[in-house]
Queue: 2 jobs
Job 1
Amino acid sequence: MLRMSTLFLRTLREDPADAEVASHRLLVRAGYIRRAAPGIYSWLPLGLKVLAKVEAIVREEMDRAGGQEVHFPALLPKEPYEATGRWTEYGPGIFRVVDRKGGDYLLAPTHEEVFTLLVKDLYSSYKDLPLTIYQIQTKYRDEARPRAGLLRGREFIMKDSYSFDLTDEGLDESYQAQRDAYVRIFDRLGLEYVIVTATSGAMGGSKSEEFLSPTEIGEDTYVRSPGGYSANVEAVTTPVPAPIDWTDAPAAHVEDTPDTPTIATLVDLANASHPRPDSPWTAADTLKNVVLALTAPSGERSILVVGIPGDRDADMTRLEAALAPHGVEAATDEDFARHPELVKGYIGPGALGPQARPAGVARGDEADGAIPYLLDPRIVPGTRWITGADAPGRHVFELTAGRDFIADGTIEAAEVRAGDPAPDGSGPLELARGVEIGHIFQLGRKYAAALDLRVLDENGKQQVVTMGSYGIGVTRSLALLAENNNDELGLRWPIQVAPYQVHLVATGKDQAVFDAAEALAGDLEAAGVEVCYDDRPKVSPGVKFKDAELIGAPFILVVGRGLVDGTVELKTRATGGSEALPVDDAAATVARAVREALA
Amino acid sequence: MLRMSTLFLRTLREDPADAEVASHRLLVRAGYIRRAAPGIYSWLPLGLKVLAKVEAIVREEMDRAGGQEVHFPALLPKEPYEATGRWTEYGPGIFRVVDRKGGDYLLAPTHEEVFTLLVKDLYSSYKDLPLTIYQIQTKYRDEARPRAGLLRGREFIMKDSYSFDLTDEGLDESYQAQRDAYVRIFDRLGLEYVIVTATSGAMGGSKSEEFLSPTEIGEDTYVRSPGGYSANVEAVTTPVPAPIDWTDAPAAHVEDTPDTPTIATLVDLANASHPRPDSPWTAADTLKNVVLALTAPSGERSILVVGIPGDRDADMTRLEAALAPHGVEAATDEDFARHPELVKGYIGPGALGPQARPAGVARGDEADGAIPYLLDPRIVPGTRWITGADAPGRHVFELTAGRDFIADGTIEAAEVRAGDPAPDGSGPLELARGVEIGHIFQLGRKYAAALDLRVLDENGKQQVVTMGSYGIGVTRSLALLAENNNDELGLRWPIQVAPYQVHLVATGKDQAVFDAAEALAGDLEAAGVEVCYDDRPKVSPGVKFKDAELIGAPFILVVGRGLVDGTVELKTRATGGSEALPVDDAAATVARAVREALA
């Protein structure tokens, strides 16, 4: 039994200055966590109790799905991560350590490499497969902007599992078993989620889905269609229109377009000076060329131009996903200064891509001076555009894709908008925000090939193993539970993860009240109920209730004035409802309520 | 139920090349751990199960002793460790990390500072005390020589607890409560231990005791006397003899002593050329001056000379404890070259200490060129010595301490020998070796003062809190359990920490045997017994027995040829004994045996 008189806890009436979101605010105020450094938290007794319950649910479902628990070091040598290229790809996103002998180590952000090597170390035959192993372990990422308390930290707990199969069908089955386990885990945690198609990013591999918990404060945007399509906005593909016959298209013509620094001013000028007979020009008729600076993991900087319809903005998140592991930002004045062929405000395809490149020079080879050029998928052959003429104050009209300009390829760079068609034809998209709580990947053979994990198949031939990788943010899930379950008074934990089930409050100064409460606490404990007893003698009822509500256990049991009439009061934190119970069978009644709530 | 057919395990018949000690050898061979890097290990499913049992025992006893569990980050900012001086004192012994913004961090080897700051953060009154909080957490030390598997690693698990009290008496009580808990923990683990007086080393503080597990492979040496004295050899103090009146002592005289490079040759020459009437000279009559190079945590190097009786060696371990946080090594030729006053082989007090220092120059200030000089406590005023005369080929006889030379102080530098008197007069010492599994400290007010942890006392006055710090090596304790419980066949776990209780082996190819074994495994599980069932169909009985013995569960239950007669065989791993059991009530009998063994 916890006792408030001795529990290592200090609740705060004020919000911490650095807390932007409710979970951060309340977990600190209610004494679950304390900040130790940016993105790094200490766990107080109450926090640790919730964490243990979340971990237990994750562990049970991993075991039920046939996973076997192992535990890897957090501090790992560079070599395996070098073999897969990730030592470099992670760039500044990981913590690196040099030991006293000069050896390079990292604090692992994820463990694909060493799981792969461990299986290679132990197993050698198809008979050993399939295998799924997992760990619940502390992970590290040197986030540029740690924020929102536990939601984006630098030291955090993840469950990561890895599956090993001989065949693609086997991988499908292992993937599905983990997916099913995730559904059970989040259902049991009482955490709302959507499963969306995702990109693989720096992990590599093919199929990938995310479990996102819908919330306004989420950093991820996802889409859904009425027909059941759902995807992270990073993974949305644009339906490609059919090419248009350009036989009768007018020739391109360059026009003076003074004072048109924006798409809006350009469209106004076009309609005023060069009107189109059938319909006015709109921003959708313009081709905007966005100049980006890429930073390779090695630190090398290069320029890329992306062409998108002028009525859409470039989406940096989608660009980052499309260009990973490169970093992406808008080009700076210095970048422009190094590329005088880019006439700011009047950039057109003439200075870009393969047509600006001497014959025989490959794409992406900047040594020839030509800047790589990628187009939004909507810019198909035959589409006609107003775009820059690569000269100050001049634009070109009716510039026709395929006929007048070509690019090095396509890229998903433009924003996705509500109402855009789903790529599978299942209707218009709607957008929402969420936080990633789980991510499952079919890695395929990338890591096994890089680290030479092979087994003998039934015919005695060496086969590269195919792998899956599956993560759950454990501390992040806990934070989301706090984020989704609170009100103006404090936290309202679902009973399955609450630090304890019943918060027993003794009010007033009457020793009989404290004696009765003490007895009741003992009876509840004996009935298997987790109790925190507020036995503080000189604390006012108001303070005790405030603490109980802030901490957020599902039931608050009050022993006070009603005792003279033989009753105690049971409050339900989630509903705010309360009822008087006869004190004599209060323990039995409350124990039953707890059991029912848990069922 | 574990099944050998799917358990993530590969037992090895060969010892790993790098394994020096039994625990390391067997934990790797039996599939409990795998090396990930020097001193850094991954935990396989069986290892994790043993670890969980060890942790559970530690946790239960900490809770029973009133400890409250918390959890701190491993990655911590420099500042608190700078405030106590340990950021520098640790020197190369810790892993340091720089984050993307240039902030300095460390992977914490122990957490005094941040526990202190957390209590300061939350508590402010004497009413909040006493408080004991603990964690079971991954710790990091960049050991110069990681060795012996889990016994001296660089990433390892510790239980560390910290007590906070207002008064010295309170600290005594908190210390005793932890000490009692440690006794219960090691008793429950079945781990033999001795409790010895220890030095506080870099931790600071006053009273300190170690729990050492006696073993030949231990790096620590400890002493015991018949009267109950026990101490780490580092903490043994030498009884100081009474000073001797030198009124009638002969004058010192310098003699030629050619070809006396060793104490033995010097004693021989002394007896041949300068015999003493009452008794022959022995090595105990010579004063050996040992030249040491110290390295401060800042990296600064300095010279110290230590004088000890010539019949004893200097003990580097005792010197390191005495001189911490400085590093100590024998002076090199380069060090000698910088100090021409040190005539190698003929160094005497004449060139050393305060008498070689101009008046008014403080000890330890090397700027004046005088080398600090410390003496073994046996060298009391009036003792007479043969020692170097600071000239090649010459020694001085009858040099009398106090009369002819003085030093800057005393130091415990000489080896402790079996038969030496205990400092408390409780008889002659005997020596043994052990491994430190627990260490408890009365830190006192060092950390609280450095970090300004104060509370209001009953009179409304600010008082600095007094603290204790208490550690248990969790993974090291597990390794010692393996070290102490094995034979030529493999591990022999005490049942309370075994990965499972019964290893059920089905032998032969008869399907009836496998059916019976499967049913028996189910019955055992239903009876609450932890079972690993070796269900592998095409593996020979010999291999199965070897694996069972290597893995080391306390009971091995064999279903095989006896089944036609209605019997199975129960083997006890610890004794090697076996008995036939009727198959029909085998589950009940084995469950009873397990319960009895656990009791």
Note: The domain at 2-8+29-236+431-483 of chain B is CATH 3.30.930.10 (BirA Bifunctional Protein; domain 2).
Job 2
Amino acid sequence: MAGKVKRFNEERERLNRIVLERDNLELKRFFALDQAAYRDGALDARTKELMGLAASLVLRCDDCISYHVLRAGEMGLTNEQFDEAMSIGLVVGGSITIPHIRRAAELWKEINNR
Amino acid sequence: MAGKVKRFNEERERLNRIVLERDNLELKRFFALDQAAYRDGALDARTKELMGLAASLVLRCDDCISYHVLRAGEMGLTNEQFDEAMSIGLVVGGSITIPHIRRAAELWKEINNR
Amino acid sequence: MAGKVKRFNEERERLNRIVLERDNLELKRFFALDQAAYRDGALDARTKELMGLAASLVLRCDDCISYHVLRAGEMGLTNEQFDEAMSIGLVVGGSITIPHIRRAAELWKEINNR
Amino acid sequence: MAGKVKRFNEERERLNRIVLERDNLELKRFFALDQAAYRDGALDARTKELMGLAASLVLRCDDCISYHVLRAGEMGLTNEQFDEAMSIGLVVGGSITIPHIRRAAELWKEINNR
Amino acid sequence: MAGKVKRFNEERERLNRIVLERDNLELKRFFALDQAAYRDGALDARTKELMGLAASLVLRCDDCISYHVLRAGEMGLTNEQFDEAMSIGLVVGGSITIPHIRRAAELWKEINNR
Amino acid sequence: MAGKVKRFNEERERLNRIVLERDNLELKRFFALDQAAYRDGALDARTKELMGLAASLVLRCDDCISYHVLRAGEMGLTNEQFDEAMSIGLVVGGSITIPHIRRAAELWKEINNR
């Protein structure tokens, strides 16, 4: 049962609504830029998700890691590709990323047992 | 003339020699892991370089950025792809990455004028 | 009902007591320096809280962000000023700060509905 | 009652099993390197745990701090030594480490009341 | 004589030209957002510069610190205010910021001897 | 010839003088706390230097690394101990620390050829 994914998505949407209710122009412009950066372009969207995932891992942001893992999963990331993405984050960012890799692996397991 | 690239490579090799002369097992094992992480596998080497580049940008390490820019350039990264890679780093990591993007753009310009 | 603020303050006080019970001179001297840094001086206390908030946002420390948001709220920070403070943190620190901005916005909403 | 320690250890083991089930060579090699780094050598294991603790504190990773506090406790770290270790983390890493020091002090208190 | 300021400004402009020559929409949109964040609004521009300075100090970005020190100086920051800004950065970010505070103090001295 | 060490010490002293000339109470109190943290106590000064070195490595501050390497060298750190200290920093902090390890190894080589 998709408990972790569901909770993550619901909390993310709930809080996003609070931010968007503020109706602040600069925050909205940043959010638009953020979305644009991951669109298919000279680099395809899946490569960009993986870049976002690597960046999130080394910056050790659980919410960001979960988001990119979910997105990459939707785009067909395989088990082996997941492991290699984790390895790059681990080698670049060091053992300090391990607690985040543990939680990412738990999320990934849930996604793939759905 | 490739001044920046040449200086970067020479300094990197000079200092790497000093590290390797130490002949320390753990450092060498880490260096081996580091190289292995970027090899063609379930993800291709070019995607991995871009992930390393994104991670280096948000961690704001000039030497690491230069290294991955040079590697990605050798693997055929286009001008548009370079810009998109910089954009992801900038959006994830914020304006604090701009000084590094400036220097990466200078290096990229030199590479492409060769 | 002020659930989030109350829980934050109670947990903070409970843990602070545990630290202070240790009765360690260096920790107490640091805490004294920390308090002194935010006092009215050549810069007024409210400006200093905003500086502390910006620093906490880009370092992505939820407890620190919550603390400075609460303090700035007590000092009369307006809704528009809150948004501008978040924007600076977001632009300097990048999308990696967004999960923290979401939680700060939730806390801010609760404060202002009291 | 050892609630915090027990929960930490159980969660850590549960998630470690998920990572190890992946049976990925690079992750396992990194984990082996990680363990090797803290073994008695030219520097004794206790000094290495303290170095790991200081590094974890300034990088603000609660799981890593908890792990090294527990390990150092098993190796006979005294109350005074705990305080001095926290002080180094606090001075190097700044007030942004305080929320982590609070939680480390809570864990330490539990360990010593066992 | 204003050696440090002049060199900083010239290098910054030279590299900015290289980035802007790329004529990339996303980079330009981010740069526009960055400028907008520091404009007079509900918070005045000087407060915002101080927030940018505090954020830059704790993120330890020399170029960013120099930029905000120069801007704040142009906006009439006094000697005492400069010290208090440094103190907040130092307390929040710890001794790891000291090398940057040293260089900021050198720049500040040059600005004020002009 | 001790070029690197000499330059490092001279630049550090020159800039420290500029900071101390400011005669600011809070900065001086922080500097006093900083010195106190590394004094012999329940933990000996050499262990504390190694903790400071590990923290500096994972935070990737060249000036701080150089300072602690020099201090640890004066306290009799051996070649093997230097390698093990670097390994801990590398494993905790990841490949992003490698450029700093290279420069630390260069400094260490100079110290030991004196």
Note: Chain C touches chain B at residues 58, 90-97 (CB under 8 Å).
